[in-house]
Inverse folding.
């Protein structure tokens, strides 16, 4: 473990431009693992804990069709002529082409001679974030070396593959080592479009390293959450719940709605550790039953959950009849359910999927299971883009119901604030307001109708009275008066 004091010094240097005089955090020895970030005072839910700026940032460049963004400002560029005319092999806008950052990038890549400098190559563009580490100051590089790195056999592949795209790629061992190490740190602590760390479904098209954030440890129920400042790409970390002085500030490296086994496997394989947080030590996941499946005994209505063993293939137990099942047996039910729901999700009718989730899937998979939660999330995401083949009423009901269902799961898990919760709660409130307004309008219409009916009844009465009076008059008129006789 690199000493917390040295890490703090380097972080102080990195955060100097916007560090508080009285920061709410410090780097200390963690109970979870190695070092961690600790609260130096009581923090209220929603309060900003710190801001972090990217020490390294570059385009994620995962998809071949998204390579036309400027490598400095990340703006999407017009379809043609976005490559640097100096032959560095990087896309750059006309404004940034004159900036210092590009001059540094450009000189470096030009000296390596890209094979095809006019063609946008995802391998070259993706390497930029890593290669920028070469031009950092010694302190900044030390900070990278302070962070956890996943140094498995694969970590050299990226640089090795990138080397093939240049004629004069550096062979200097020190430089290659800096790049390999940076790749390894990015794999463990970096943000990337494809990795699951962006748990709040935030669009993040970069690959970046936020050092203070990198020091934070993982918890499957994190007590902080983050957002990004669009202008600066700075990360803003806030308290998701009230945090006590001295408590460790945690984040999550996994998706929130995956079951114990899937999270364990991901953390073990990708991050190289076993999580022992309260959620991971509870087979019911705090009563949220995210992994829960129905008992294989059709006469039993119990839920079956995996045992806490830390093994990838644990036995499963029914909480009612206590029957044991093997992992393979339970995976069959899980796979069947996933297959059935995904087939509906992939059919083009959103209405069919919603109907299936509301009426059918419950017969073979509990609503608490992550497959169902995922499907509901995807319905909400699709509705955010358009209502497809659902009518207004169905859209409204679905939004209300699914937002409520998912926030209830979050409550059960004990999850505090997050961008996702804000989004769901906003949707819920809007939908409730819309419904209340509609109901009020309906009530007003009914009141008006009742008023009209009352008036009509009065008018009828009046008419009847008039008619009666008229009839009397006629009778009177018809009867001969004594004078006439
Ligand atoms: Zn630009
Ligand atoms: Zn250039
Ligand atoms: Zn955990
Ligand atoms: Zn049972």
């Amino acid at each position: 473990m690199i000493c917390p004091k040295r890490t703090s010094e380097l972080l102080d240097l990195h955060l100097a431009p916007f560090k508080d005089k009285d920061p709410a955090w410090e780097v200390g020895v963690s109970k979870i693992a190695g070092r961690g970030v600790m609260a130096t005072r009581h923090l209220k839910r929603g309060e900003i804990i710190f801001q972090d700026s990217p020490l390294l940032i570059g385009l994620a460049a995962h998809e071949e069709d998204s390579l036309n963004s400027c490598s400095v400002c990340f703006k999407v560029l017009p379809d043609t002529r976005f490559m640097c005319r100096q032959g560095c092999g990087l896309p750059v806008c006309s404004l940034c082409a004159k900036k210092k950052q590009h001059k540094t990038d450009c000189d470096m890549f030009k000296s390596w001679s890209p094979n095809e400098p006019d063609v946008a190559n995802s391998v070259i563009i993706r390497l930029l974030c890593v290669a920028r580490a070469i031009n950092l100051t010694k302190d900044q590089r030390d900070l990278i070396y302070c962070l956890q790195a996943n140094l498995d056999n694969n970590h050299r592949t990226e640089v090795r593959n990138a080397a093939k795209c240049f004629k004069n790629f550096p062979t200097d061992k020190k430089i290659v080592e800096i790049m390999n190490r940076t790749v390894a740190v990015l794999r463990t602590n970096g943000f990337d479009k494809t990795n699951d760390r962006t748990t709040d479904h935030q669009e993040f098209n970069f690959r970046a390293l936020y050092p203070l954030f990198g020091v934070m440890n993982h918890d499957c129920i994190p007590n902080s959450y983050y957002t990004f400042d669009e202008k600066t790409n700075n990360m803003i970390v806030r308290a998701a719940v009230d945090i006590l002085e001295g408590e460790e500030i945690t984040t999550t490296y996994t998706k929130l709605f995956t079951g114990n086994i899937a999270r364990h496997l991901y953390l073990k394989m990708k991050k190289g550790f076993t999580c022992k947080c309260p959620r991971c030590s509870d087979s019911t996941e705090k009563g949220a039953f995210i992994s829960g499946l129905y008992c294989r005994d059709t006469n039993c209505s119990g839920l079956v959950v995996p045992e806490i063993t830390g093994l990838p293939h644990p036995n499963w137990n029914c909480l009612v009849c206590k029957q044991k099942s093997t992992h393979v047996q339970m995976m069959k039910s899980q796979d069947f359910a996933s297959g059935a729901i995904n087939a509906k999700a992939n059919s083009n009718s959103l209405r069919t999927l919603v109907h299936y989730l509301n009426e059918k899937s419950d017969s073979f998979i509990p609503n608490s299971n992550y497959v169902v939660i995922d499907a509901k999330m995807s319905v909400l995401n699709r509705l955010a883009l358009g209502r497809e083949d659902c009518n207004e009423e169905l859209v409204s009901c679905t939004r209300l119901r699914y937002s409520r269902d998912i926030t209830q799961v979050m409550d059960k898990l004990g999850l505090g604030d997050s961008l996702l919760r804000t989004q769901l709660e906003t949707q819920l409130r809007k939908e409730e307001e819309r419904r209340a307004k509609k109901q009020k309008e309906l009530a007003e219409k009914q009141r008006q109708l009742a008023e009209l009916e009352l008036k009509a009844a009065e008018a009828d009465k009046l008419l009847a009275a008039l008619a009666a009076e008229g009839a009397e008059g006629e009778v009177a008129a018809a009867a001969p008066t004594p004078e006439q006789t």
